[in-house]
Structure of AQP2 protein:
Amino acid sequence: QLHNETSTGQAVTVELFLTFQLVLCVFASTDERREDNLGSPALSIGLSVAVGHLLGIRYTGCSMNPASSSPPSRARLVLLTPLFSPPQVFWVGPLLGAAAASIIYHYILFPQAKTFSERLAILKGCEPEPDWAEREARRRQSVELHSPQTLPRGMSE
């Protein structure tokens, strides 16, 4: 049920942004490639959920998760309703928000430097080239910042 005379378009937008910020927070706080993570990922994700609920509860009841908005007995009914009817708001908004957050994080904010053949091998489900691990270690050393007096991580005297 939508609150405060919120239209379905506004509700989809609210759910999209709430899920977007939550998924972006999860990616940023749990990414093992990042070494600048400080604090607890559980705390940052929990605060993100709390902020999302505080901002969205007034407009849509704040779903941020399609599974929590539709009980199993109503799943068939929800999937058969028109695309932007009130029950579908809680599916369309979060799915679009999560997809947008994934694309932005993985391709703009923190992209992985892989060649086309490596990406193709991952899509096919087979192992990348044999020297991939060595090239990845060299690439990480080349992009790390270090002072002239210290050696980059992974290199010993």
Q: What stands out?
A: Helices lie at 8-30, 41-56, 66-69, 75-80, 86-109, 116-124, 132-143. The two ends are 65 Å apart (CA to CA). Residues 114-146 form one domain.
